[in-house]
Amino acid sequence: MPDPAGTDPQHATASPWLKLLAEGAPLAALEECRHRLVADQGPETHAAVEAEARRALHVHALLEARTRQAAETAVLNDLARRLAALHAPQDVLDEVAAQARRLLGTDLSYIMLAQDDAALRIEVVDGSIGSALRGVELARGVGLGGLVVRTGQPHWCADYLHDDHLTHAATVDAAAAGEQLRGILGVPLRVGEETIGVLLVAQRVPRTWTDHQTTLLTALAAHAALALHNAELFDRHQRTTAELRRRAEADRRAVALHQRLTHIVLGGAGLHAVTDALRDALGAGISVLDAHDTALATGATEPAPDALATALAADTGPPASCFTGPADRATRLRDTPDGHWALAPVVVADEYAGCVVARRHQPFDANTVRSLETGATVIGLVLASERAATEAERRVRGEYLTALLDGTTDDAVLLRRARSGGIDPAAVRTVLVLDGPQAGPAAARAARHHQGWSVEYGGLGVALLPTTPADARDRVAPEPVTAVAAPAGGTIATIRAAHRRARSGLRLLHALGRTGAAADSDELGIYEALFSNAGDGTLDRFVTATIGPLADHDRAHGTRLTETLDAYLTHTARHTATAEALHIHPNTLYQRLAKISAVLGEGWKEPGRAVEVQWALRLHRLSHRLATPGTEPDPGTAKGVRGEE
Fold it and tell me: Rounded CA gap, 87 and 551, in Å?
């Protein structure tokens, strides 16, 4: 029969528990209710109260577990959203390590990633007290992380350094000891069937890990692995896109450079146009060197001389010593404190003709090297074209200068041809004639210096110069040649006359024993005056009247009295010096002098007479030397050179 007062023990004890559970009361409130009910009711209800209390505590634990699980699920979902928004792999790693440590409330968390060489490397650490862990590498199967990767399953240890079930490595143990790691839990980072790494959390005290903690960290690892994989794909896509854009831009610049260089070649522009095009395309200072490492041209931002010298001295030496043959003509790259350098060889007709030197702050990649090599090829074409044009001009000018000097062509025709050959006879003020092995090159150098013209004519070098004879003489004086400069009046007739005068002066220099000297024709004026009248017999009559008997005596008796007298007067009547010069005994010299006095008479020793005798001896010697036939011009072998080339 029901209790009329409503005092059913079961109903009386169940009501407060439901109310507390519905209100979400803490565990302490449930314990307090149990104690109060036990104290307020009689012993006959104690068993019922304890039973209800146990059921209420069990329901409370279930509710708390579900609340915690809901909170953890919310945290994981929120973390998944944040990870999905991250596109940089390093950002994902940092976020996962921080959230793992926070979610499980541990001292430290770290992530190992698999490497190409099958090793594991700790990429990120959160909560560390030093840097001992970061960058540590271990083989798969070594340590707790290696065990997780090898098995593909979660594993934990309560005290890592004292766990004999694990494979230890000295470097890994040293890092763990440095961080004071004890209890460690590790779960795999998996993408599909592949384990790409390990997520680990650790305590600095021994710890036993529950299945719930393992499941929670595994769930986090699943989100992390997917986010990391997506971030790597995104990063790879970004790099690929950037590389494609860079290549497209490089191709665009290469096409633009090719088109610009094509216009330069077709338009006949020179080296400076090419260097400017390379400078704009490569963003580099440009210099062009010839086969002897002499600068031919530079761009608007050419390297400083000291920086260029540093680059050329680096590595294996200057370009001329680097590009030694057809098999050794690859572009050289050099790095110095002044920047990055590239040296591309210039080849003309399979011969090394120089190189293009480029310097910039950024390293040279394959595209810029190819552009530089394209520029070097174009420079080779420009040089070959210039050589061909120069050679053609030389031939034309050589033929013209030959016709001008040999006098076989009408002067009016020569004047018309002068314009087409780029020669101005009216500008010629000096004709320079040179003799010797280097006569042709020396004449060309003099022509370049004075902006004149040169030709190899009749085995001699000839230069027509718009300068004075004195300037021309001084210019070639250091050269290893014999040279005479004669004045010209700017007409074809005066040029020919100056050429004849300079050739005659050249013969006089040789006759005077001044081979290797350079002279102005006016310096030889007295000899020119004397020998210009030699044709009327005046010079021969003077020599015969003065020393003729002595020469007749030598021819008749085979003596050397004329030579003895010449040496005696040359050495200013010093007996000892004369005897040494003739390699005879002094007594022999006295005997010869006595014989000379017997032939010429004692009067030859008087000062005035001695001067006449010495002049007669010198003129006799010069006449003999000048009587030797010289080399006549060979018009068919002349080559002309314009001074500015």
Answer: 114
CA–CA separation, 497 vs 499, rounded Å? 5
Mapping DSSP onto H, E and C, the string for 359-382 reads EECCCCCHHHHHHHHHHHHHHHHH
Q: In which element (H, E) is residue 165 found?
A: none
Query: Who's near 607: CB < 8 A, 6+ residues apart?
Result: none
* CA 140 to chain CA centroid, nearest Å: 46
Looking at residue 334, its amino acid is R
> Which token pair is 268?
């006949």
Report how far residue 530's alpha carbon sits from residue 643's, in angstroms, rounded to the nearest whole number: 36
**Gyration radius (Cα) of the chain, Å:** 54
- The CA distance from 426 to 495, in Å, is 10
Task: Give tens-digit pLDDT for 538-588.
Answer: 556 666 767 778 888 888 888 888 888 888 888 878 888 888 888 888 888
- Cα 402 from Cα 315, distance rounded (Å): 50
Cα dist. 366→156, 250, 312, 369, 442 in Å? 51, 10, 21, 5, 46
Q: Which residues contact 511 (CB under 8 A, 6 or more apart)?
A: 621, 622, 625, 626
DSSP string spanning 170-187? HHHHHHHHHHT--SEEEE
Q: What is the C-alpha separation between 273 and 491, in angstroms, rounded?
A: 39
Distance CA 176, CA 188 (A): 20
Q: Are strands 194-202 and 119-126 parallel, antiparallel or unpaired?
A: unpaired
**Contacting residues for 389 by C-beta, under 8 A, at least 6 apart:** none
Using a 10 angstrom Cβ sphere, with 0-12 exposed, 13-18 middle and 19 or more buried, the burial of residue 403 is middle
At 173-200, the pLDDT tens digits run 888 888 889 999 999 988 877 888 899 9
Cα 265 off chain centre by: 25
Query: Contact, 195 vs 141, CB < 8 A?
Result: no
Q: Map tokens 């004086």 to a residue.
A: 477
Distance separating alpha carbons of residues 352 and 318, to the nearest angstrom: 13
Name residue 29's beta-bridge partners: none
* C-alpha–C-alpha distance, residues 148 and 150, integer Å: 6
Give the H/E segment covering residue 119.
strand 119-126
Token reading at 67: 């609340």
